[in-house]
Design goal:
The chain is mainly alpha-helical and 96 residues long. The relative contact order is 0.14.
Length: 96
């Protein structure tokens, strides 16, 4: 029974990763969705060791979703800064 629940959780996690990456979402939204799916899978596996699969999956989803959203937001900010620097240099070269 434990192995079956682990396989189901891992399958849903992999499915969520592939389905959410194709959407037109921001990096923070994608990161949150992927983090929540992965966190739920890992939390479910860890929780299964103490017969608390659901609690582990819920905690894992919350922590993974928050971490994924923060990382996605950081990536977006970094990309934005990079674009601003590129535009600044292009304008500078054009003026010269």
């Amino acid at each position: 029974m434990k192995n079956k629940s682990i396989v189901i959780i891992l399958s849903l996690s992999i499915l969520s990763v592939f389905s959410f990456t194709a959407c037109n979402w921001s990096n923070a939204q994608k990161g949150g969705a992927i983090g929540a799916g992965t966190g739920a899978a890992v939390g479910g596996v860890i929780g299964a060791q103490s017969n608390n699969t659901a609690v582990g999956a819920i905690i894992g989803a919350a922590v993974g979703g928050a971490a994924g959203a923060l990382i996605g937001d950081y990536v977006s900010a970094k990309e934005s800064r990079s674009l601003l620097i590129q535009e600044y240099f292009l304008i500078s070269i054009h003026i010269l």
